[in-house]
Design brief:
Chain A: InterPro entries: HPT_dom_sf, Sig_transdc_His_kin_Hpt_dom. Chain A: One of its GO terms (biological process) is phosphorelay signal transduction system. The complex is a heterodimer of chains A (115) and B (571). Chain A has 115 residues and is an all-alpha fold. Chain A contains 5 helices and no strands. Chain A has a single domain, classed as HPT domain (Four Helix Bundle (Hemerythrin (Met), subunit A), Up-down Bundle), CATH 1.20.120. The longest helix of chain A has 28 residues. The radius of gyration of chain B is 39 Å and the shape is elongated. The N and C termini of chain B lie far apart (105 Å). Classes of the chains: A mainly alpha (115), B alpha+beta (571). The interface between A and B is medium-sized, with 22 and 20 residues.
């Protein structure tokens, strides 16, 4: 079920690259994502919204959160090229998707810290 | 993970990325590849860090707060100056327009998210190669520029030194016109002219093999020999032998000097020519007509050993208004776009068509330009007009001694016998000796001319028994001098005695020169009775001797000449 949300291959590669820093990477991503979400919700104009979607897309793709990255890509595309209807709905989807992956990353953190 | 290669050199890599997780991931990847990492959260920090730490490579996120990647890239490139600091844009930008903006801002490459450590390592390596290539190019460029300046400076110095030597001559004489490109010296071209003590003019147009400094190095010793020996009164043959021997000694085997030398006597209206490897020079008739070529009959200077060197010259009569025209190979060897040479025929047409001597150089250069489609700067041209000797004023010889120790009461006798006469010219020694008499210095030109004339009469008509009537016309002139050389080479007996007597007088003093030879003598009264006009070419120069000295007589059936010079006491 988690494979829909996260590419496990990416996670194992990340762990191999980061070694001892893997745990810190997971925590940094989770903290960073909270900031991106609040930027998505607090955006005062299209530019800010597009920028937040773009950054969130980049970090989630790096972390293997493929579905989240795809939603962010759609949002960025919509903000830049329209149509603007349904944007609210897209942001809500991102919220839900993040809630799902957040749990998975927390589990991963748990797994690594227990070792 | 890839292992560092053998020639691996750790770089400092600046990472500017506003997402904390991406920054951490990227920093870890780069660090694991063995590099030092600097991190920045926005463009402004990146620029500051770059200015402080001068990292080798920069990884820049395109979209960042405070200052975006585009602006940061522009500022970093400006700070980097000529050095190549590769910038790799970190982006998930997928739109063409955005990628173009990255390149326009100075980006050298892209790295897409999600990051691949393998691709990143390959890109850093490729960028490092570029960076080093650029650094090498810059270093070599600066080195070349330094060397170039150094070389130019050396050339300036060399030319200045050389000009000091070359300008010792008489290229500024009123009957000489010449054209030489400012850097002809570095084309190997050499143009020298100087008066002999007797008022004759020695001229050399030379062309060293090669270009640049190597072609110019031989010019200095050649010029020194030329000026030194000309000033001491040596003739062309001795000067040529000395120049050849010197160049043979100092130049590498593949270097030599083509040269055309002239000894112009405006008094006696003859020119002596030696051409070794230069293009034909020309004797141009007064008032137009067929130019007469001065053909190369010898190998260039610096090739043959002194024993094998041939100093045989040709002697031609001259008439007022005739001109000698010399040129470097740049003229006839000029080729057009189809590799066709300008050639001798075209040159002769230009020479033949010339009506106003003052325009000759212009016409030659125009013909070359028309032929080739562009002008060239390695042409040397020289034009000498035959004028009355009074029009030329050889610079007075400057003496450094006071004259107080001048010897004033002595006599000397030399006897030069066959073997010596063959290869030794005693005149410079005799003339040098007579220079010691200060009272005579004002007449040194006349003294040189007279002594030269007396000696050549004694040698040619006396010892060698050549009939002066042979020099009657221009055609037989050449055969006369050919015969002279043959007889001189075969000479086995005979002598010339030179007796010099210096006597002080109540107010000044006098010099008596006696030149005696072993020849058959001549009918003095008959020769002297001839009208001056007839004496022209074949008069043994007796008229000249009588004109220049105070008293001249021939005794012992013409075998002995007695000539007197006198001077007043110096104030």
């Amino acid at each position: 079920m988690s494979e829909i949300h996260i590419d496990r291959k990416v996670l194992s590669d990340l762990q191999e690259v980061m070694e001892d820093g893997y745990l810190q990477l997971l925590e940094t991503f989770l903290a960073d994502s909270e900031i991106r979400l609040s930027q998505l919700h607090g955006a005062k104009n299209a530019d800010e919204l597009a920028h937040a979607a773009h950054s969130f897309k980049g970090s989630s793709s790096n972390m293997g959160a493929v579905a989240l990255a795809e939603l962010c890509r759609q949002l960025e595309d919509r903000v830049n090229h329209g149509p603007l209807q349904g944007i609210e709905d897209l942001i809500n989807q991102i919220d839900r998707e993040y809630a799902a992956v957040r749990g998975l990353y927390c589990d991963e953190r748990q797994r690594v810290s227990i070792g | 993970m890839s292992q560092p290669a053998h020639d691996f050199e750790a770089l400092t890599v600046l990472i500017a990325e506003d997402g904390a997780a991406d920054r951490l991931l990227l920093a870890t990847i780069v660090r694991k590849q063995g590099h030092q990492v600097l991190t920045a959260e926005n463009g402004e920090q990146a620029v500051t860090l770059f200015a402080e730490q001068r990292p080798h490579i920069v990884l820049l996120d395109a979209l960042m707060p405070v200052m975006d990647g585009f602006e940061a890239a522009r500022q970093i490139k400006a700070l980097a100056g000529e050095a190549l600091v590769p910038i790799i844009f970190l982006t998930s930008l997928s739109e063409e327009q955005a990628l173009v903006r990255c390149l326009e801002a100075g980006g050298d490459d892209f790295l897409a998210k999600p990051y691949s450590p393998v691709i990143l390592a390959a890109k850093i390596k490729a960028m490092d190669r570029l960076r080093r290539l650029q650094a090498t190019v810059l270093e070599q460029r600066d080195q070349i520029a330094r060397h170039h300046n150094h070389l130019l400076n050396e050339q300036r110095v060399a030319k200045a030194v050389f000009d000091q030597v070359a300008h010792a001559g008489c290229l500024s004489a009123p009957n000489i016109r010449y054209l030489q490109s400012p850097y002809a010296l570095f084309n190997g071209d050499l143009l020298l002219a100087a008066f002999t003590p007797a008022g004759d003019m020695h001229v050399l147009l030379g062309d060293f093999t090669g270009h640049g400094l190597p072609a110019a190095v031989g010019a200095m010793p050649l010029a020194e020999v030329f000026y030194g020996m000309t000033a001491k009164g040596y003739g062309l043959a001795e000067t040529l032998r000395e120049m050849n021997a010197k160049l043979k000694r100092i130049l590498p085997v593949d270097m030599f000097c083509c040269a055309l030398l002239l000894n112009l006597s405006f008094q006696r209206r003859v020119v002596e020519v030696w051409n070794g490897g230069m293009p034909d020079g020309y004797l141009l008739p007064a008032g137009g007509g067929e130019p007469m070529p001065l053909v190369s009959r010898h190998l260039p200077l610096g090739i043959l050993t002194p024993e094998r060197f041939d100093d045989t010259t040709e002697v031609l009569p001259l008439a007022l208004g005739e001109r000698l025209f010399l040129l470097s190979d740049g003229v006839v060897d000029t080729s057009d776009d189809n590799e066709q040479l300008f050639g001798v025929e075209r040159l002769r047409q230009v020479l033949g068509a010339n009506r106003r001597p003052a325009l000759l150089f212009e016409e030659v250069l125009q013909a070359l330009e028309g032929f080739r489609g562009r002008s060239r700067d390695d042409v040397s041209l020289l034009d000498i007009e035959v004028v009355e000797p009074q029009l030329l004023s050889p610079p007075p010889v400057i003496y450094s001694d006071s004259g107080q120790s001048s010897p004033l009461d002595w006599s000397l006798q030399f006897e030069f016998r066959a073997d010596t006469l063959k290869r030794f010219n005693p005149l410079p020694y005799l003339l040098q000796l007579l220079q010691e008499i200060h009272g005579l210095r004002a007449q040194s030109g006349a003294l040189h001319s007279v002594l030269t004339e007396l000696y050549s009469n004694a040698l040619e008509h006396g010892v060698l028994g050549l009939d002066s009537a042979l020099k009657r016309d221009a055609r037989s002139f050449a055969s006369y001098y050919q015969m002279r050389n043959e007889r001189l080479q075969a000479l086995s007996e005979g002598f010339i005695r030179v007796h010099l007597r210096v006597e002080p007088g109540p107010r000044g003093g006098r010099l008596i020169i006696e030149v005696e030879d072993s020849g058959k003598g001549f009918n003095v009264s008959k020769v002297l009775a001839r009208p001056v006009s007839e004496q022209g070419l074949c008069g043994r120069g007796l008229n000249l001797i009588r004109r220049l000295s105070r008293r001249a007589e021939w005794v012992d059936e013409g075998r002995r000449a007695c000539v007197e010079f006198a001077w007043e006491a110096l104030a």
